[in-house]
Write a structure and sequence with these properties.
Blueprint lengths: L4 H9 L2 E2 L1 E3 L5 E3 L2 H10 L10 H13 L6 E3 L5 E8 L5 E8 L3 E8 L5 E7 L2 E10 L6 E9 L2 E9 L15 E4 L15 H13 L4 E3 L42 H19 L5 H21 L4 H9 L3 H14 L22 H28 L3 E5 L8 H5 L8 E5 L9 E5 L4 H6 L3 H11 L4 E4 L7 E6 L8 E4 L2 H15 L2 E4 L7 H9 L4 E4 L19 E4 L8 H5 L2 H8 L5 H24 L10 H14 L4 E5 L30 H4 L3 H15 L10
Length: about 700
Amino acid sequence: MPDRAPLDALARLYGVQMEYLDTEGKLRRAPDETAVAVLVALGAPVRTAEDADDALRARRQELWRRVLPAVSLTTPGGGELLLRLPAAQAGSAGVTLEVNHEERRHWAIALDELPVARRALIDGAAYISRRLALPGGLPLGYHTLQLELADRTHESLILVPPPLAYQGRLGDQRPWGLVAPTYALRRRDGFGSDLGDLDAAVQWAARHGSGAFGTLPLLAELWELGDGPEPYRPTTRLFWNEFYLDVQALPHLSHATAARRLLERFAPHIRTLCDAPLVDYASVVALKRQVVAAMAEWYFAGSDHSELAEYVRGHELATQFARFRAAGQRHHTHWPDWPRPAADGDVRREGYDQPDYRYYLYSQWQCEQQLTGVADRARTAGAPLYMDLPLSVRHDGFDTWRHRDLFVDGVDIGSPPDPFSPGGQNWALAPIHPHRQREGGYRYFIGCLRHHLCHAPMLRVDHVMGLHRQFWIPRGMDTADGIYVRYPSGELLAVLTLESCRHKALIVGENLGTVPAVVNRKMRRHGILSMYVLPFEIDPDHTPSVGAPATDAAASLNTHDMATFAAFWEDLDIAEKESLGLLRPHEISALRVRRDRQRQVLLGYLRRQRLLAGGPTAAEDVLKACLTMLAESPARLVLVNLEDLWGETASQNTPGAPASYPNWRRKARYRLEEFQSMPQVDDLLSVLDRLRRARPRPSVEAS
């Protein structure tokens, strides 16, 4: 039997977790082949498990030769960081601390007077770790410490985070909000599926007392290359999706004759597309592009480009993003197949067509302008935007092209096998290299957060466990043979809480499914709201059989990956999965039995809570009782799927469905003008608003 100790030790030093507990509590060990493949992807000098001994020595030497850690955490009261030095290193060193890019402090230290933390002997070389005290009174933020030692400068990022993410100024308020995909919204006189529709829906919700309006990711996709729609697998987390532009609201449209005439000519086609039950992304993008491209040409033909220049100054990557998109269109393929130097990140002026470049730059500018307007009006109306940050991006998109060294190639992110996905899931997302991310001072992560938080005072972090560990699947290997890779969660959470407080934004972590207890503990410790989704809290084999929302929860009846409430109540989601071949016969039978037990348990609970009368009950009565239960709970936030208000049975997304299935394409059954005049919608919103403004009602079962 081979000695696995060296491989296990090497894996630990790279943050690779050789073993994990599955959903049944059984210990699973990843295959050695998976571990080696992931170690290679992380930069370890190995080809087989037999190379682990030499690689282990090299890794230990590498870690001890680094004088300063790339990142250190401390508190406003002071702290320390560890210097790693050759044991014989003595003399003095100069220290410079730049505080939030504003103030610079200088002092000198005597190395041999610093307290010793540890000594180590690595392959005959003696090292010593010493404690360097950091000054107290540092403000919250990002500070840079430089150490001048033997004619070399060593640098460390010092994070001083707040103890909690932003908690709001809500007092006794317990807001509720509506959630709907922007692509599903439409007005009678609009283009459909755009920011104008989102704006109108937010304003309508605010008039009913809604304290938030949530939507799915609005991030860019490469329509010109046939990508999308995949909101949770975007090309970038730094730029918006021009599909959502409200072309009717473009500034100076009345002065741009060519663009205005195109819009008038397209009017009949626009109405047809808007009336269709499914979004025809390709046709909508094609029509919008012609109008926006004409607007861009009109704008660039003018002499005053000061507003665009201001946008570019505030978005340093905007011109690179426009060149990237234009180059992709020139080559008709994704960047890994481009010729050099473009594939290496150097797109030169002759490598793209100027009209394409101008279109992409202008459309991105207008996306930012329009979304800023929607967000500002939402705040003013009292229903701020609740946005969604995906876990990562696709391998062949802008972020992996621009940040080449940050992302790991040849490996996908997914999830291990569980009862819902016996073979596991491969999300085809590009993982971020955890160590290079630290070396880069988390600039990319900070940029992604700021891109969203400047518009959204509430942000949902998808798969929040990804801040702690991610399940990596080497290309060509079975999903079930994947392996967990750890991330520096303390530092990532520090960045998240810093940006949350700077932007005064509540943070919600998507912690559904099998999540280690430590993740939930750290969320509570950092003031990050967890997610409570009612169907996941109904367990006939557990006591209590229906879990109640906690104070630190964002509570709802479902998510974008789940059935609507009516479909859940009537087993329509099970029938749909059966028709798509996603379930085997014995799984279907077991699900139906369990669902029936869940219904009986829920009915009993609602009746004991005096939220539902005895006797026969219709789905709409149960829906109202469930929403009442959530509204009366102490949950910090209650979110309601807009489509549940009229009993929608079709889902927006069915995970695992074939490509021909219309995931992310189904429009709301009713236009804004139609559902805002429905008595049952008004009734449910009135109940929500009244109950959320009252004090939480104690549970009958708990009293």
